[in-house]
Amino acid sequence: MLGTLTRKGSQTIGMEKARLSKLKKKAESRAKYLLIDKGWLLMIIALLLGRAVILSSISPFVIALIASVWWLRRDRVPAVVLFAVIGASTYGWLQTGFVFTAMLTFLLLAFIVHTWKEHQKLLPLMAFLACVLPRSVAFTLLDAWQPYEALLMAAEGVLSAMLVLIFMQSVPLLSPKRYKATLKNEEIVCMIILLASVLTGTIGWQIQDVSLEQIFSRYLVLFLAFIGGAAIGSTVGVVTGLVLSLANVANLYQMSLLAFSGLLGGLLKEGKKTGVSVGLIVGTLLIGIYGGTVSTLSPSLMETGLAIILFALTPEGWIRKLARYIPGTQEHSQEQEQYLQKVRDVTAVRVEKFSDVFRALSKSFHFYDDQTDTEEHQREKDYFLSHVTEKTCQSCFKKERCWAKQFDQTYNIMTDLMTDLEGGDEPSRLIRKNVDQYCVKPQKLIDTMKQELSFYQANQQLKKQVLESRRFVADQLRGVSEVMEDFAKEITKERENHEVQEQEITYAINQLGLEIETLDIYTLDAGNIDIDLTFYVRNYHGEGPKLIAPLLSDILDETIIVTKENIAPFPNGYCELSFQSAKRYIMETGVAHAAKDGGFISGDSYSTMELGAGKYALAISDGMGNGIRAHEESMETLRLLQQILQSGIQEQVAIKSINSILSLRTTDEIFSTLDLAVVDLQDATSKFIKIGSTPSYIKRGAQMMKIESSNLPIGIIKDVDVEIVSEQLAPGDLLIMMSDGILEGPKHIENMEAWLKRKIREMETNDPQAVADLILEEVIRTRGAIEDDMTVLVARLDHNHPQWKAIPYKRKEA
């Protein structure tokens, strides 16, 4: 019973919270609609600016406002004029007359120039004239021309023209159609000037000895200092205090109070609202004690207290919403991160869609391949026999007997003859005997079938080439689809939050006496750790690989090495280091090669390359023949191989791509072999792809293992059937790859492979370069001459032993 009541109570509270949240959102939406969409905020601003007067007699604000509204929100001009006149009437009849006539003058000027091109450039001049003309007429009628009055009139006109340019950047912020999510510094300052000008309209409003303009100005400083920090806070204080002091000289000291309080409040913003409020209290006390008496300090403290109360009552949601528009704030950074995340997500989705398109295209090509079945082959055979029959049996007197009465027997004889001729130029004795006994014109039939068979075979060869081309395109499209799919996954992969590890690493490095500037942990996956670090150092002496990397190795329980160093070129600078997981194994390579007859240019080419994901590739290509052409062909093969493999495409697709490119590039009979080995440096697995190349050998102690396959050289046929041989390597293994010139060694040796394996087994050294040199030297010395290009590529797999051991450290106590 108690549990039921508790659940009902929780449900009631939840429903009440949801209802209050709904009402709150509805109220905020209604307030936004009235203030922004309907323009009531502009009307309130016009009301206050209508009575805003500085230097005792000039009022440049209201004309600047009407000029900006006329340009940006022309539909609100009548309401703004009405409220400005109402506001001026609360100040005095002279202010009312000036505001009304100045606005009327501006509207008349606007009516005259609104059809001109680029009349926006005339707005400052129009505002200047709208201020000067009514004053000039009034001074003339009243005969009140004085140098001081003329100077004030000119100052009013110039200020009004300048404020037009400022308000034109502020009024759009009050528009319902604002799309930019970030305010520029100029827009922030212009908005502050607009708000300070509005506060000028509250001068003279007091409750006992407390001035409303001081309460609101200090609240404005608190609000913006809490959002933007010391820079924004001090700027608000200076601008607001300056504008208010122009309106009332007695408020001149307030500029120092507001500026100092904004600076202190911004510096103390980490203390939340309390810290900013303390900054205002301290500023009020210091400036009040320094510039006044106890009688003036008491009202000032009361104004500060009321401003703090208003600030405390301000909802956090309002502050966060406004902070999104201020560069440098946490809310703005989060907004930018969300925007970038949306861009990444959209990009990833589009890349995935492209991947799906390529995959669908690949499947469609394979679908067409699947349609070439037995029925299609039978149909083509029938077409062939119909062409032969048309040229032989059509005019024969036994046509009716053969094809009408004995169709099956005739068809079988024709089919057997066709099959027999496909295998050779002449039919076998049995087939010839059957044809002679059955047909009255056997030789004509055989000759005609031979002739038609050449066209039939050519057509079949063409269809086969088209089919192979389709398969090649399908493999290419599938490979591109896989690469794009992997790329989409990389785009969507966000940097994970590693707060605990960041604290531990920072604490450990601080124990070394190094001052960290930034620490970015991108991933801590086993075997794929990625960390960027920036630290301050007086003089760099290799602290990265000697101290930090060993320390990280102990913390993360994995061998960490420095992959990139960016050291400051001067003392007392910052150093940027990148750390990644060390591979479990390393490959040490050695190569020896010689050109035919001791020449300088060899038709053999070799390459060793590091691929992504911790893989290492070794390749030898042997161009057909010798000399420059063979060298260029083998180099082109390896260049294409490296570019395609490093793009992320699988080895089989890469080989097929190279084969198709080389076979379609030229009509010359220029072919090349390819011997490729790809070794995973994390688990020592290896893949061997041999296209027309000689066998490779793995030496493991006294044991020799042979790696071979039977693929034709690249470029000979359109479709390469790539056979992959996989082997598990072990530390200390020697991988020996060679071109065919090595196996064409001494002529007096019958079994060259056995002789070569014996020589390699008997070698006492395990150094890759020494093994390569000894093999090449042994073959040349035994043969007595270099009759072909020779290349030996040797690699040894070893454990990766870091240069520096892990450094244990005293872990931070919980």
Structure, explained:
The structure is a single chain. The protein is of the alpha+beta class. The longest helix is centred in the middle third of the chain and has 51 residues, at 442-492. The mean pLDDT is 77.
Q: Supply the helix-strand structural class.
A: alpha+beta
Strand percentage: 5-15%
Oligomer: single chain
Distance between the termini: 44 Å
The parts where pLDDT drops under 50 for at least 5 residues are none
How much helicity do the residues have? 55-70%
Biggest beta-sheet profile: 5 strands, antiparallel
Question: Whole-number average pLDDT?
Answer: 77
**How are the strands of the largest sheet arranged?**
7-16-15-12-13
Protein name: Stage II sporulation protein E
Keywords: Hydrolase, Membrane, Transmembrane, Transmembrane helix
Organism: Thalassobacillus devorans
Pfam families: SpoIIE (PF07228), SpoIIE_N (PF19732)
In short:
This protein has 814 residues and is an alpha+beta fold.
How would you summarize the topology of this molecule?
Layout: H1 2-37, H2 40-50, H3 61-72, H4 77-89, H5 93-113, H6 123-142, H7 147-170, H8 185-200, E1 206-207, E2 210-211, H9 212-247, H10 252-267, H11 272-291, H12 294-313, H13 316-323, H14 330-370, H15 374-392, H16 399-405, H17 407-423, H18 429-438, H19 442-492, H20 499-511, E3 515-523, E4 530-537, H21 543-556, E5 560-566, E6 573-581, E7 585-594, E8 604-611, E9 615-623, H22 627-646, H23 651-665, E10 672-680, E11 685-691, E12 696-700, E13 703-707, E14 724-728, E15 734-738, H24 740-743, H25 752-762, H26 768-783, E16 790-799
Antiparallel strand pairs: 1-2, 3-4, 4-6, 5-6, 7-16, 8-9, 9-10, 10-11, 11-14, 12-13, 12-15, 15-16
Pfam families: SpoIIE, SpoIIE_N
Keywords: Hydrolase, Membrane, Transmembrane, Transmembrane helix
InterPro entries: Bact_Sigma-Reg (IPR052016), PPM-type-like_dom_sf (IPR036457), PPM-type_phosphatase-like_dom (IPR001932), SpoII_E (IPR014221), SpoIIE_N (IPR045768)
